[in-house]
Amino acid sequence: MAVLPIRITGDPVLHSPALPVETIDDDIRELVRDLYETMDAAPGVGLAAPQVGVPLRVFTFTWTDEAEQSWRGVAINPELWISPLEPGHPDPDLESEGCLSFPGERFPLRRAERAVLRATDLDGNPFEIEAEGWLARIFQHEFDHLDGTLYTDRLTDKEQRIVAKICRKVGWGEPGVSWMPGVDDLEG
Q1: How large is the average pLDDT for residues 26-55?
Q2: More confident call, 77 vs 66
Q3: Is 142 part of the annotated catalytic residue set?
């Protein structure tokens, strides 16, 4: 297993739709092991293959909910259904999220409260998870990566100007910029 470099916003792989996984083989199993190791080292609650430069529809997740139930898994070729968004502005204290591809920053973002994830596991078995709250947010965030969307793309115009300013200040936004979890200290 290996910790992989995480791509920073601006890298083309983060802004392109990922391709479906055709066959779950040893290469995919190794990718998933590396995604888990990289996600844990970062540390993060989710990591999509495009974030490590692999344009495939795969993401890992890990989360312990309020009831102390642990959620950890991999979604291969996922489909996601979400409940309608509640109208209004996001609460900065309760609805802010960050991203390993835009490290060190958090912005408020309204997400659907509920989601249904349907995917295939590493053994090729289909599964379905009905999620609420933060687990639903994690699924939406990681699923967005597979469609070439970063959470910063969903922010208000005002917040996107802040994102652009941060990118210019720290030199992000160019193809090939990455960081190594456990090695690089990236503070936005």
Answers
A1: 97
A2: 77
A3: yes
Per-residue pLDDT at 140 exceeds 50 = yes
Question: Does the bond joining 43 to the residue before it have cis omega, within 30 degrees of 0?
Answer: yes
145 is in an annotated binding site: yes
CA 4 to chain centre: 15
Note the pTM of the prediction, 2 decimals.
Answer: 0.94
pLDDT band of 187, cuts 50, 70, 90: very low
> Which one of the listed residues 37, 95, 105, 142 is annotated catalytic?
142
Q: Is 99 annotated as a binding residue?
A: yes
| Lookup: tokens for 154 | 């969903």
Structure tokens at 111: 């997400």
Contact yes or no for 64/43 (Cβ under 8 A): no
Measuring CA to CA, how many Å separate 115 from each of 2, 67, 111, 133?
31, 18, 10, 9
Q: Is the dihedral of CA 115, 118, 123, 125 positive or negative?
A: positive
Alpha carbon 120 to its chain's center? 17
Instruction: Note the pLDDT of residue 49.
Output: 98
User: Among all chains, which residue has been given the structure tokens 């030199």?
Assistant: 171
* CA 95/CA 107 separation, integer angstroms: 8
**Structure-token pair, residue 171:** 């030199």
